[in-house]
Amino acid sequence: MTAIVHENLSLKPYNTFSIDVATRYFTAVNSVNALQNILSDEQWKTIPCFILGGGSNILFTRNFEGLVIHNQILGIEKIDETTDHVYLKIGAGENWHQLVLYCVENHYAGIENLSLIPGTVGAAPIQNIGAYGVELKDVLHEVHTLDIEKNISCVFNNADCQFGYRDSIFKNTLKNKHIVTNVVLRLNKNPVFHVEYGAIKEKLNGAPLSIRAISDAVIHIRQEKLPDPKVIGNAGSFFKNPIVPEKLFLSLQEKYPKMPYFREENDCVKIPAGWLIEQCGFKGKRFGDVGVHAHQALVLVNYGDGTGREIKSLSEIIQKAVSEKFNIALSTEVNIL
Predict the structure, then answer these.
(1) For 132, phi and psi rounded to 5 degrees?
(2) Catalytic pick from 115, 168, 237, 315?
(3) What's the total number of domains in the chain?
C-alpha cells in the first residue's frame, strides 16, 4: 500500500510547543514495512527526513524543507516471562504514559516513577528518559531500529545503547542514522520501590508502598508543577540539570548554602537547573508571547503565538545569565530544529 503524503502541512498539532511551522512533505507510518517502503522510495532519498513521535521534545524554529515521517507503530506484546521478570515489546508510536498505566494495571514494576512523561515510546531510549531516581536504562532490554541508509532492521542491547544522563548512542554517533521501531523492556514482577526523592515521600505520606501508589504520587507532583501542553505550549524540562565537579560545587555552596544538589558518581554533583534559572530572576517572567513558567523555571512556555526562534532566543539569554552568575553551562534537553 502506497503511503499518503501531504504537502505543506502545518506541524502545529504535532508539537507540544504549538509552534506553527510547516513541513514540505508529511506522512505517517504504522508498521516497519511501511517505513521500509518510504525509505526505499527514490523520491525521498534526495531530501532531508525527520522522524516525529509525540513532538514533546522538539522546538521547531523554521519550516522543514523535507519529509516528516510520523511514527505511529503501535502494539504492546508480552514476549517472554521468567520467575522474576516480564519482557514487553512495545511499538515506538505508543504513548509513554499509557504504557506506564498499562504496566501499573498489570503489576509490572520498573517505570512507575516515569509516569506522565510526555511523548512516545520511541523517544524514550533516545533521550534515556528519567525522573525521580529512575532512568529508562534501568529497565531497557533491547531497542529495535531501522538503519536508514541500509534499510535493514537492527537490534541494540542495553550496553550497545551507550546510555548516559539524558543521552544515548542515538543522540550522538547514530543520530539521524537509525529509526526506533520497537522497544523491549525487562520489568519486575517483584517491585523494588524508588522513593528517595522527598516529594514522593511527602505525597505518599506514610501510605503502603505499591506500584500504583508511586505512580499516582508522581502524577500528582507533575500536575502540580508542570503546565499541561494542551493548555499552554511547552516541552517540559527545556534544560538538563548540570553535573559539575566537586571543586565548583563547593565554591558555589559557600556562596549559596541553601543550594539544592544531588551527589553523582566520580565526585560530581548535580544541581537543579530550575533553581539556577530562578536565582537569575527568570521564574514567571514573560517576554512577549513566550516566557518562563511561574511554577517551574525549568519550563519555557509559548503563551499562544510565540515562535520557535523567540523561545530559542530566550533559552540563550537564560544560558548566558546562568553562565555569568554561576560559571555553569546549561545544555538543552529539548531538540532544536
Answers:
(1) 50, 50
(2) 237
(3) 3
CATH number at residue 300: 3.90.78.10
Question: What pLDDT sits at residue 1?
Answer: 56
pLDDT under 50: residue ranges of the chain = none
Active site residue 222: no
Exposure string (b/e) for 299-318, b if CB count within 10 Å is 16 or more? bbbbeeebbbebbbebbeeb
The answer to whether residues 167 and 253 belong to one domain is no
Q: Which of 16, 43, 71 is the last residue of a domain?
A: 71
Catalytic residue, chosen from 94, 166, 168, 315, is 166
If phi > 0 it is left, if psi is from -120 to 50 it is alpha, else beta; for residue 51 that is beta
pLDDT per position as a tens digit, 193-203:
988 876 888 88
Q: What pLDDT score was predicted for residue 219?
A: 95
Within a 10 A sphere around the Cβ of 84, how many other Cβ atoms?
10
CB 183, CB 90: distance < 8 Å: yes
Q: Are residues 246 and 323 in the same domain?
A: yes
Residue 237 catalytic? yes
Would you say 237 and 277 are in contact if contact means Cβ atoms under 8 Å apart? no
